[in-house]
Write a structure and sequence with these properties.
Chain B: Belongs to the bacterial solute-binding protein 1 family. The complex is a heterodimer of chains A (315) and B (435). Chain A has 315 residues and is mostly helical. Helix content of chain A is 72%, strand content 0%. In chain B, 48% of the residues lie in helices and 12% in strands. In chain B, strand 1, helix 3 and strand 2 form a beta-alpha-beta unit. Classes of the chains: A mainly alpha (315), B alpha+beta (435).
Amino acid sequence: MTAAADHLTHPAAKRSLMSRIAHSRHLLGLVFMLPAAILLLVFLTYPLGLGVYLGFTDTTIGRDGIWIGLENYELLMEDSVFLLSVFNTIFYTLVASILKFALGLWLALILNEHLPFKAFFRAIVLLPWVVPTVLSAIAFWWIFDAQFSVLSWALIQLGIIDHNINFLGDPWAARASVIAANVWRGIPFVAITLLAGLQTISPSLHEAATLDGATSWQRFRHVTLPMLTPIIAVVMTFSVLFTFTDFQLIYVLTRGGPVNATHLMATLSFQRAIPGGNLGEGAAIAVAMIPFLLGAILFSYFGLQRRKWQQGGAD
Amino acid sequence: MKFTRRDVLATGAGLGAASLIGGMPAFAQSATAKIEPEKGASLRVLRWSPFVKGDEDAWIANTKKFTEATGVEVRIDKESWEDIRPKAAVAANVGSGPDIMFVWFDDPQQYPDKLLDVSDIAGQIGSAHGGWYEGPASYAQSGGKFVGLPLAVIGNAVCYRDSWAKQAGFSEFPKDTAGFLELCKALKGINHPAGFTHGHGVGDGNNYAHWLLWSHGGQVVDENSKVVLDSPETIAAVKYASELYKTFIPGTESWLDVNNNRAFLAGEVSMTANGISLAYATKKDPKLAEMAADLKTTNFPVGPVGKKVELFQVTTLIAFKYTKFPNAVKAYMQFMYDEAQMAEWVTQSSGYCCQTLKGYANNPVWTADPLAAPYAVASETLRPNGYAGPLGTASAGFMADYVLVDMFAEAVTGQRSPEEAVKRAAKRAERYYRT
């Protein structure tokens, strides 16, 4: 920016300055990076920084807060609802991610086989991912409805149960229900990405293993899985991040009820900040999510990408 | 601003005289103080999406009349009712957006210094129409000033199937909480249970929980904002709620705002509480003609406290200080509260919006249909949330966190004893009312 100001004030120096910039690789590199850097600063660093700052203030809607240090966090540590939401979030993320990974990998392996109408199946697998979350959440709302659940109805018609299942009323049933909805929605992302990974594995590796007498389980365990770990690491990092920060599904299905049994940190943060008006506390809850998210990212980088060749070295 | 204050005053005086001649003679004292909009003014109004169509149509028609009379263009946008709070908060914080908004509950109390002081016209309008009802007026006032005009109270009443109540042996609806429990038991006995929302339904959940608490004499805080929730009265309310819950259709702890309507319209429950929209839903659908004929409405019964006290959704008309046309805003407000417009709006809202001015209490809408009668007293029996403390950040935060709803739900589902549930709720209340 100073360079630009300079050549405005010294038109004579313009030519040489321009040509110097054009010929300096470092400067040119910086100039090219500038738009991206500005975008990141304005749309990422600033909101994040503001969020972190708000977490240290008692800002409410309509009133600027004052710096109160760690008070929001101290109060949250004594808040049973917040602690419950932390538990809910970890439980939700853990169970949903494991299920999504297992089912997604399974689906990817199936889709990788030579099926009839392969392209068609691969396309429809993506449907749950394509449908807007709010729409699918409303569909699940009906499925889990206390009075009109199609699942309850079918089971009653089959004579398996004699009364409606209280999907969203019982705390553990509610947790299981929202996890089921999240898994349904999240599988396609995992499956399709892993499928892409599977297709990069050279068939010659499998042929060699087969010639060596490897069973299909051994081929999966010692050829497919190691070759797939880099992409698993990336997919699961994303999957965990999406699940951990899930909001819409809970908001439509339960609003965090019954008695906060399905409140996630994201939904609680919103509830406290916007309808409740305590922007500072809401921000603090959101900031409290960051360590967990960082942990998930670090785990996938150091835990799952531990082989040297995955990081560009020789194995 | 292109005009100096002197210009505005001068043109204002001229136009004021003109409007006196052609204007409304009905209320001379308000007509004399008619505020004239700035020249070239235009306004943006953001309201909640209507629940009954007549409300929106009448509001738009009245606004058109205002535009014709003054030349001030008014654009009306709408948002889903739950999105109003964040939108208003952003507008207040950022300092730009609509000039006028319909907001809910304690919104005006959260940023009173960002709102246009409308005490002058509030006083005129109030005295011209028999005065404001105390409940809705308390939501619009802050620091002795009107920071908005009380717009309406959305009544909530018990809706029940008369034939089933009769079948259960109740030809007359019980007047007190004890009789109400007997009715619920009897309804369950004939396999047509009642159902009231114990889930995180912003409207239905909070309305029901507050009625339970207040009807038994419990309150969250006293006049000095000291938390007094953990009281024998509250525990009695929770115990009463547990008894009621046993008679309900299963799953009401998962109900959000829509579930009770669905269950009632499907004939799954014999009784629930709702706005008048439920009654209209039965009338609109020819397939529900039988239900429509059978549906009756009444107020929640009176509890040990001895009088009707309930929480309803309260909406206030506010204007932001940042508006470029404060006079146009006030002129618009005055116009919309004039007899001709306001009476029409209350009528067309078909009982959904209860008047905030006592002068409109005899609106024919309340007597045209007996179903509307219980909704007519909403403004009168309304008790503000956070009673008996002041409205503000604490009361708003407390209610938005569903503390009372959770307290009852925890106890009625048997997760905790009534005493424990009340203690926990009181502890949560302390978080909001700490000093």
